[in-house]
Amino acid sequence: MTNQDQSVGALGEAAVLAAILEVLRPASRAAVGPGDDAAVLDAATGRVVATVDTLVHGPDFRLAWSTGYDLGWKSAAVNLADIAAMGARPTALLVALTVPDDTPLPLLTDMAEGLRDACAALAPGCAVEGGDLAVSPTLTIAVTAIGLLDGTAVLRSGARPGDVLALAGDAGCAAAGLRILFDRFRDAAGNPIAVDASSLSVPERAQLAAQLRPEPPIGRGPVAARGGATAMMDVSDGLALDASRMATASRVTLDIAAAALGDDPATALSGGEDHALLAAFPPELALPRGFRRIGVVLPRGETAVLVDGTPYAGRGGWDPYREWDAAQG
Amino acid sequence: MTNQDQSVGALGEAAVLAAILEVLRPASRAAVGPGDDAAVLDAATGRVVATVDTLVHGPDFRLAWSTGYDLGWKSAAVNLADIAAMGARPTALLVALTVPDDTPLPLLTDMAEGLRDACAALAPGCAVEGGDLAVSPTLTIAVTAIGLLDGTAVLRSGARPGDVLALAGDAGCAAAGLRILFDRFRDAAGNPIAVDASSLSVPERAQLAAQLRPEPPIGRGPVAARGGATAMMDVSDGLALDASRMATASRVTLDIAAAALGDDPATALSGGEDHALLAAFPPELALPRGFRRIGVVLPRGETAVLVDGTPYAGRGGWDPYREWDAAQG
After folding, report:
1. Using CB atoms, which residue from B47, B51, B53 is nearest to A43?
2. Around Cβ B44, how many Cβ atoms within 10 Å?
3. Which domains are delineated in chain A?
4. SS3 of A167, please?
5. What confidence tens digit (pLDDT) does each residue in B155-172 have?
6. How far A199 CA sits from the closest chain B CA (Å)?
7. Closest chain B residue to A37 measured between Cα atoms?
8. Nearest CA to CA, how far is B132 from chain A (Å)?
9. C-alpha distances in angstroms, B105 versus A212, B34, B95, B275?
10. Sequential DSSP letters for B86-103
11. CB-closest option in B41, B149, B234 to A50
12. What is the pTM of this model?
């Protein structure tokens, strides 16, 4: 079968869905999984958490850089992180794909495998339980994640002066990986080209992986909630920018210690997409495993975020996707 | 302010989100609505139902024919119907929008009003509780609907020989409306043009409304579940085609009486998008209010669907969007 014969348009919806469900159905844990009008999920704790986020071909990814597996993994990971950031356990994903007619089927089955494996690795007990497939000029992956709360939701707005500011997960790695892609894997005209991993050092490979296939500390979310976190959010747009959001929601100032941010504090502060968990804890409690202290919560001052006591003046994040030039690659 | 100044690209994400949330936030009923990492929903019954469906500019709608309000309304209605078809009460929507940079803001705030009003009219107690906004070359609206089950989910697979086949809602109206659009509101080159409602008869206006702003009988879903329905689904792709899916899932044959389908049984059988509820009930039970008998469930025969005892030979649906020609309009 040639690649052309394997396009979504040539195969038709029923065949494409069947191939995708062959990957996803065995992992289903729901009372009713894919196949009926809707999925039926257990919600024994009585409190459900739900979020949605879309990856769009062009502004959010390039097919020259990301495999289908990468895209499936990342689209799961970023939404699982939002559930974890509420202190909840993810239990189900719904995946709405819009795909051009000429999309090769293996891209979609690879995506299904990435979604399945990210759930298994990052959030055991969670699986794809439903979705939708539509034809569109633009490839997009909209993932809805649903989770259960065992206790109370941890919001952005609960940080109190005197709390310890802590982080679980990476800061700056995914941004460093994105910089590698834009600096080293584009042709003379600026178009993305395939990644040659053999040209990269071991740390660079880790940064690339953090960008293309992030591994946010999903399990730390419920741990933080049980451990007394007063506020929590996932860091998707950059530590300094997201910290300013928590500070504003909580009406406090957050003072971050640059020395706690590793070798490259500037990138750690500005870089997004690691989906680390930023949380505040009362000072009398021991930090839960997986969290490290990166600063302190102060009464609200003139600026939302300080770094070593000085107003943060860095930029919100080096993000070539955001100032999107309409290229897709 | 000119239309250009009001484009999504010129205004920026924060301003666009603020305008949308101004419409949606007052209707929120969730413990935590829009604004944090995820929404927190009450799930007191312990059983949650979830579904997602995407409307794509081009294959699913044309901006010359649909207002933003229509699009918001329809994207809510079609997903509410999937929740109802499980026998559940819709409680929350999450809306993931992907929009071109030059999209005028009023299109999005109109869409938010349509989403809000469809919830209020069709599923009181349900509201938009979260979402995502992304830039994309293609306008898409992916709506996740979440609902609660008071009893057991009603699946497609439970119809039994001897059951009465019943329908709540319209059959063929939305398809007739779509035919009006394609036949009468395109220019010589085939491009969609604005609808002149004054050229339409009263019944034609109702058909057009059924296509652009459908009103599926959402409340009938839980009523059918309490009333003993053995199987249920919403009719999105045409009565005959969806009936064949129920027949196959239940391993039965469904015999539909053409006389029960009104003036134009052919369109009722082939036409989709009304999102009526098709259900089977044990013969000894009275049909719940809102349902009318349209046939009977037989032991599985050679064909999945009969009409007046004869194998259904009509087509699956007159659907110019489906054999999509890449036009957007």
Report:
1. B47
2. 10
3. 8-148 (3.30.1330.10), 156-175+214-311 (3.90.650.10)
4. strand
5. 999 999 999 999 999 999
6. 32
7. B82
8. 6
9. 32, 19, 16, 29
10. TT-EEEEEEEEEEE-TT-
11. B41
12. 0.93
